[in-house]
Amino acid sequence: MIASLTAALLTLQAAPAAVSAALPPRDPRNWPTPVMDRVAPRLPPLRHGAVLILSKTNGFRDPEQIAAATSAITEIVRESGRDAFATENAAVMNPRDLRRFSTVVLNSTSGNIFDDAQRAAFRRWVERGGGVVLLHGAGGDPAYDWAWYAQTLIGAQFIGHTGRPMQFQQATIDVKDRTNPATRDLPERWTRTEEWYSFDRVPAGQGTRILATLDESTYQPFPERTRMGAVHPLIWTRCVDKGRVFFSALGHKAETYAEALHRKLIGGAIRWASRRQGSGC
């Protein structure tokens, strides 16, 4: 009996290791080793109103998507006659460097990327009037250890997206507010294929404006926990003290950054966040 119990205990103790060994290793291209940046990058000469594009990933990373998005955002900014600086170095979040930018685009950033001093610098810059555009994965972590980022900057916590085998589905977006420069040129009903994000709540307060929602009757919310009901927000704006914040859950696949309407959305979001167009905050 004792021998049998001992064997059973050893089996139970070994089970987690056996399960872990059975799982395929994470692809380092999608799960890079986390690195905290301490030395800021050297900035080139920048004209007033420059845009910072940060694509730091200490969590999930899609290399093709980030490369395509960074290229597209840079083109969009330069076509508007402004300077853009793209970096993977989060140490750019310091008072000296941030004052050279009117807008920060967080391009599918993920994981814990800022140390305490960088968090404080970014927060002060936003609250004093900086503009932030968060794209796709920048609001797509399942948990954040910086409460201000999820609760105040974004206004909602990501809870999941459509999963395999139905990860990418065609669905229809209802553009509810077309007064913002980002949504002005979008159709009222915009049908496209995407990995559809869901959140724990509909953002509210702090001057929030829901610009676009997902019509859940046009696709299959899977898994079921990704269903939000009548109001499923995808694109919204918020005011964080004097700062303007724009969030869009769109843009998982690299090719979406070649879509004319998606590029218009991003360009308008940057113009709004930088106070070149539109009202609020």
Automatic annotation (TrEMBL):
Report the PANTHER family cross-referenced here.
GALACTOSE-BINDING DOMAIN-LIKE SUPERFAMILY PROTEIN, SECRETED GLYCOSYL HYDROLASE
The signal sequence is 1-21
Q: Which residues form the ThuA-like domain?
A: 51-273
Q: Which Gene3D superfamilies match?
A: 3.40.50.880
Coiled-coil intervals: none
Keywords from the UniProt entry: Signal
Q: Which InterPro entries has this protein been placed in?
A: Class_I_gatase-like, ThuA-like
Official protein name in the record: ThuA domain-containing protein
Organism name: Novosphingobium flavum
